[in-house]
Amino acid sequence: MSRETPTLGFEVADRWEGGFLGEITLTNMTGQTIADWFLNFDTTGFAIRDAWGGDLRTHGNMAYLEAKGWTTNIAPGQSVTFGFSAVGASPSELGSLGFKANVDDGSVITVPEDADPENWNSTQPDETGTTLPVGGADGAPFGAADYEVVLNKSMLFYYANYAGDLPDDHPISWRWDATLDDGAEVGRDLSGGMFDAGDHVKFGLPMAGTATTLAWGGLAFEDGYKDTGAYAALSEHLRQLNDYFLNAYDDKGTADLSDDVFHAQVGDGNADHAFWGAPEDMLMERPVYSVDAENPGTEVTAQTAAALASASMFFRAQGDTAYADELLEKAQQLFSFSERYLGNYTDTVTDAAQFYNSWSGYADELSWAANWLYQATDDDAYLQKSEDYYVEPNTAFAFGWENMSNGTALLLAQQTGDERYVDDLDRHLDYWMTEIATTPGTDTNDGLAWVDEWGANRYAANTSLLATVHAKHLAYADPASNADRIEDLLDFAGDQLDFMMGDNPDEQSFVVGFGETFPLNPHHRGASGTTHVGDPAPNAYTLHGAVVGGPTLNGSYEDVRSNYVLNEVATDYNAGFSGALAGVYESLVYDDWM
């Protein structure tokens, strides 16, 4: 008597101009545990960029996926969903599909059933095949597969804010070359980098904060990024940002710090915000605002030193030693410049004050940057500087581009075990988990921890990153003794991410392109496709993966383009969010976390 074979279903879960998101659902109907599986299918008409839930290989017009992580050891009756993002035309079905599963009684099951398992492997498909019809979404509850999808979407958002000369295969088809003349007036190529939000200014402080936070997530949760297929995109984003920082720092080729110049901002904030249109269509002047020895800007130069140092660690882990060495050398030099020539950056770059003012001063950036240099060099002198510059953090606020002190408290607590830092860290996390005001929740969600109307999601996501980083540290230090604390931290982080993904009273996703109800009109000039913010037509393009500002404390939200408080997007909004997604994903699929 023949045994039932697994069922396979395919759906195009999302489409955008030039690409799509494909999801495959495997349901184990065999009555045995599926230990692992191999899958191949035809990719004629499209090219896969990333895959999650399995290791991907491609050859010609065929893709080959092999089970990995949480898609192995599938119990009888259990379903798992995995998939890929691709550029090109979305198919109505997956053609020439072959599937092989190894079950725990030692036998092999194939789809189609008459395929010869002895001649079927993950690199050379059998000539026979099957097709999977497109089906509908099943609305499964959030789990590892959902975090994978959203993490990959979040990587797409950063591409939408790239500046400069974009490659022909840039994944956002409605973006092309822009700001190619940036920096010409000062003789530097400042065409690249990223626009900070829904506008087109290159604000140096949040850009560097975004870069450091992104690198931190990638270093802390490398397995999560790699397993989900998001690591390659993260690498591209960090290179895009740090190449720009290398160009923005002009040390004149000398060891003398007194002649160094750092170009801290490109674009006039008011002129930029008065223009509503795509970055490719801008005609206004793009002035460069710079800091130097006589006109310092310690916050932006120290934060950039932190970005360069953290990126040096990230790329060194990849084996790109030459690039890592270059980044670290410039990080050390820029940090020395930051220490020697002290001054608030908005006293020099006065245009930034009305958009990204430095309320906390520059000591927190110096402590933060010194800590990243300590991690990158293992030089105790930098650790001492991190402690010397340390600023007691604001328990009731959040880690973010303007004040890094809660992040530094976490790092120093882990590195030194000193009671001062441990207490500061625990007090901050306890406040967010038990005392902070929250929006209305659901039966499965306690609500969004809410600290500020402007970017409420951003602050909750950043704190979720701290919670997941600390949970992993505790899990590896002493999982038995720390079990309750780890569970509390991960429950908090998961709750915050789930709220943003749609587990809230209105079932409103705040992640563009994810869920049944997501923002259609985020405040983003390029994605709007219009020349007036008040244009009643919906956004022309879907800004996949962007996290909008979020709800008010009472949970209200409106998907209105002109509401830049609740509905704007920003690269720094996504930075902690991306890392937290990778962390919560890891916690679900790796047993050694608990």
In whole angstroms, the N-to-C terminal distance is: 42 Å
Q: Approximately how much beta-strand content do the residues carry?
A: 15-25%
Q: What Rg do the Cα atoms give?
A: 24 Å
Rounded mean pLDDT score: 91
Largest sheet descriptor: 6 strands, antiparallel
Number of distinct beta strands: 14
Low-pLDDT stretches: 119-128, 134-140
Q: Helix- and strand-based class? A: alpha+beta
Q: How many H/I helices?
A: 17
Would you mind describing this structure in some detail?
- This protein has 594 residues and is α+β, with helices and mostly antiparallel strands.
- Helix content is 39%, strand content 15%.
- It contains 17 helices and 14 strands.
- Strands 3, 5, 6, 8, 9 and 10 form a 6-stranded antiparallel β-sheet that branches. Strands 1-2-7-4 form a 4-stranded antiparallel β-sheet, with helices on one face.
- Strand 5 and strand 6 (62-67) form a beta hairpin.
- The radius of gyration is 24 Å and the shape is globular.
- The two termini are 42 Å apart.
In short:
This protein has helices at residues 144-160, 204-220, 222-228, 231-248, 269-273, 298-317, 321-340, 345-348, 363-377, 380-388, 405-416, 419-435, 456-477, 483-501, 525-528, 564-567, 571-589, and strands at 7-16, 19-27, 34-42, 46-52, 54-59, 62-67, 79-88, 93-103, 108-111, 130-133, 202-203, 249-250, 261-266, 288-292. The protein has 594 residues and is α+β, with helices and mostly antiparallel strands.
